[in-house]
Design brief:
By secondary structure, this protein is α/β, with parallel strands linked by helices. It has helices at residues 26-37, 62-71, 74-80, 108-122, 171-175, 253-263, 265-273, 317-333, 339-363, 365-368, 370-382, 384-394, 406-414; strands spanning 16-22, 42-45, 59-60, 82-90, 96-105, 125-127, 131-137, 143-150, 153-164, 186-194, 205-208, 216-222, 227-234, 275-276, 281-285, 295-296, 299-301. The structure holds flavin-adenine dinucleotide. The site of flavin-adenine dinucleotide has 43 residues, from helix 1, strand 7, helix 5, strand 10 and strand 15.
Length: 415
């Protein structure tokens, strides 16, 4: 694959294109690749020069693998990634189970660059850094383009369709009048550590639940070259209580990270003995397929901007790819680009994902009440059937619903 000439100046933006994709994360690049592949004239724009870092756990869970295969880039990603065979789930007691699944870890700097290059390879034109400022409208109010800015200059692009794939930051959604919630759903933070001596000890993605991490969990994900991504997430950091539109005050994530080191011996050793490769960096998440309008005449919202990240685990790369693919496929249903069929098709596709997101929202109670994790892990340690069911959930062959009703939970525990 050729390394694309991505960092083109603002002036390289064309006056017009068919589809203008804003945001070259997984959602935007997936969408741009499919559309360009189908022969559409696509321009992909990002506010940051590429390749760029993205604060993330870098964990590629099974839904990500499936989407990468659909995009035809799975082998390229896996050639660079650390492969893992299981998700190690650690209970507050220290007891753990390894849940089998197709998993991998690749730092987002490389992962996103690879996907973006794949979009360019398919024919998309990439321009960065250029920040989306506002959409442009015609007399009927339909979106027909966007204004971008960089270093004091601005430039306008007209398009048939605008796709916003701008991630968790609400600025672009607010500018497009599509934001329904400014505050994030969750917060998480991570750093990288090199420790070649611990590579054999932590071959799998390690998730740790504990009362002191209540509301979230800690993780250690083994990345390539003897490095590890280590972090904590607070998945209900900004949950709105009942009718109250003011979120409760979130816990300090650095304190939470220190609590993680206090309760997990492997995390403590990694940070004590390893070479820490960067500062702790935090970032927001938008979850539950909520917080933004998905579409309006002339514009589709995709990936984390549309809330496509799971509230239980904070995983969103796979669903960013999937919703980016959905946006592209919806844009292809109407060859003339007519609004109604595209909008209806896209809403139908995202609605189809709702039940799964709803289940993962309910599953967030495992983060709030870690003793539930202890019960499940204790049971799975004594029952291959239970481990198989957890593996089916991880691999998205089964909905987590059976764990989330009292009857289902009882059946799984004692049936
Ligand atoms: C600490 C942390 C750990 C996580 N760990 C995992 C994990 O292990 N596995 C997993 O699956 N998910 C994880 N997630 C979630 C995952 O990072 C997101 O779900 C995913 O990045 C969403 O992809 P996206 O393409 O929608 O948005 P992003 O990846 O955020 O990409 C958005 C792009 O839009 C650009 N942009 C934004 N605004 C503008 C603008 N105005 N103009 C132009 N460009 C703009 C940005 O520069 C960026 O490149 C984690 C998140 C956090 C915060």
């Amino acid at each position: 694959m050729n390394v694309p000439d991505w960092n083109q100046p603002l002036a390289a933006l064309p006056a017009r294109c068919e589809v203008l994709v804003v945001g070259a994360g997984p959602a935007g690049s997936a969408c741009a690749r499919l559309l360009a592949h189908a022969g559409r004239d696509v321009v992909l724009v990002d506010a940051q020069a590429f390749p760029r870092d993205k604060v993330c756990g870098d964990g590629l869970v099974p839904d990500t693998h499936a989407a990468l295969r659909r995009l035809g880039v799975h082998e390229r990603v896996m050639a660079l990634a650390h492969r893992a065979k299981a998700a190690q789930c650690v209970a507050p007691s220290g007891g753990f189970i390894d849940v089998p699944g197709e998993l991998a870890v690749l730092p987002r700097r490389e992962f996103d660059a690879l996907l973006c290059a794949a979009a360019v390879e398919a024919g998309a034109r990439m321009v960065a850094p250029a920040r989306f400022i506002v959409p442009l409208h015609d007399d009927s109010g339909r979106v027909v383009g966007a204004r971008f800015g960089h270093a004091g200059s601005t430039q306008e692009v007209r398009c048939r369709w605008l796709v916003l794939a701008t991630g968790a930051a609400p600025a672009a959604l607010l500018a497009a009048n599509l934001c329904e919630r400014r505050t994030p759903s969750a917060m998480a933070l991570r750093t990288y550590v090199r420790h070649a001596g611990m590579v054999d000890e932590i071959p799998n993605l390690r998730f740790v639940w504990n009362r002191r991490l209540s509301g979230g969990y800690g993780w250690i994900f083994p990345a390539p070259d003897g490095t590890f991504n280590i972090g904590v997430g607070l998945l209900d950091s900004h949950v709105l209580r009942g009718d109250d539109s003011t979120p409760h005050k979130p816990r300090n994530l650095r304190e939470l990270f220190n609590d993680f080191l206090a309760i997990d011996p492997l995390a403590a050793r990694l940070m004590r003995e390893g070479e820490v490769l960067g500062e702790l960096k935090g970032a927001p998440l938008r979850c539950d397929l909520r917080g933004a309008k998905w579409a309006a005449p002339g514009v589709l919202v995709t990936g984390e901007a549309a809330g496509a990240t799971y509230a239980f685990t904070g995983e969103g790369i796979g669903k960013a790819l999937e919703t980016g693919i959905a946006a592209a496929e919806s844009l292809l249903v109407a060859p003339d680009g007519a609004d109604d069929p595209v909008l209806a098709d896209y809403r139908r596709r995202l609605d189809g994902l709702r039940p799964r997101f709803e289940m993962y929202r309910k599953a967030a109670s495992f983060n709030r009440y870690p003793f539930l994790v202890s019960l499940v892990i204790w049971r799975a340690r004594h029952s291959q059937r239970m481990t198989d069911r957890l593996s089916d959930i991880l691999n998205e062959r089964r909905m987590p619903g059976s764990l989330l009703s009292w009857r289902g939970f009882k059946r799984m525990m004692f049936g």
